Amino acid sequence: GENVEQHPSTLSVQEGDSAVIKCTYSDSASNYFPWYKQELGKRPQLIIDIRSNVGEKKDQRIAVTLNKTAKHFSLHITETQPEDSAVYFCAASWGGTASKLTFGTGTRLQVTL
Amino acid sequence: DGGITQSPKYLFRKEGQNVTLSCEQNLNHDAMYWYRQDPGQGLRLIYYSQIVNDFQKGDIAEGYSVSREKKESFPLTVTSAQKNPTAFYLCATGYGVRGYTFGSGTRLTVV
Predict the structure, then answer these.
(1) Does residue B101 contact residue B2 with C-beta atoms inside 8 Å?
(2) Smaller CB count within 10 Å for chain A: N or C?
(3) Is the CB of residue B30 less than 8 Å from the CB of residue B22?
(4) Residue A94: pLDDT band by 50, 70, 90 thresholds?
(5) Which residues, in sequence order, are CB contacts of B28 under 8 Å at separation 6+?
C-alpha cells in the first residue's frame, strides 16, 4: 500500500518568514495530493490540493509543488502569521472511486512574533 | 459541523466494554471513512465504505467493527478486543476525488 513520509515533525519560524513542509510517497499510481491544517482540538481542514497533471498550485500565501519523478511534494507558506500555527498533514491517494487517503505523520508549525 | 455530525464529543469506556461512535452526514456523499488519530502518528485508517452495505478494512481494523445500512450513517464500534482504544476518532466523507470533509471528532478515553 501507499506510504507517506512527512518532514519536519516540528517547525518554528518567525512571523513574516516562509515555511516549507515536505512529503514523499511510495505508490507511483498516486495522483491526488491534498494538504490539511488542524488547529488544536479541531478537525482537519483542507487548505490546498494538487493533482498529478499539475506541477504547482498557488492560493494566496500558500502553494504546493509536486515532483512526480521524485515522488515528493511540498507545502510552501509565505509571509507567515501567528494564525498559521497549527499541525499540517499531507496525504496521497490514487484518486479513483476507492480514493482512500494515506496521511503523513504531521508537522507542527509554530509562528513566533 | 459542515454536514457531518459525530457524537458524542467525549466518550469514556470501561475495560471490557464495547462502545459505539456515531457518524451521520447529509452531504449525500457515497464514501465514508473512520480514522484514528494519536499524537505524533498522524491519521490512520480504520475502516471505509464506498457504498451502502459494503465496507473494507483499513490499516488498523483489528478490534473495531462498522456497519453501513444507510448512506447517511457509518457507526464505528470499538470492541473489547481493542486493547488501546484511547485516541481521537475522526469520521470523514469523500466525493469523487475532492478530498475529505471531516467531522468534529470523538475523543475516547479508557477509564
Answers:
(1) yes
(2) C
(3) no
(4) confident
(5) B71
Mean pLDDT of A52-75: 94
| Cβ-Cβ contacts under 8 Å, A105 against chain B | 40-42
Q: Which amino acid is at B24?
A: E
User: All 3 cell numbers of residue A34?
Assistant: 491534498
Tell me the residue length of chain A: 113
Q: How many CA atoms lie within 13 A of B13 on its CB side?
A: 24
**Nearest CA distance, B86 vs chain A (angstrom):** 15
- Using a 10 angstrom Cβ sphere, with 0-12 exposed, 13-18 middle and 19 or more buried, the burial of residue B2 is middle
Average pLDDT, chain A: 93
Instruction: Please enumerate residues of B whose Cβ is less than 8 A from a Cβ of A.
Output: 31, 33, 35, 40-45, 48, 50, 56, 58-59, 90, 94, 96-97, 99-105
- What tens digit of pLDDT does each residue of B50-84 get? 999 999 999 999 999 999 999 999 999 999 999 89
What is residue B27's DSSP assignment? S
A35, A45 Cβ separation under 8 angstroms:
no
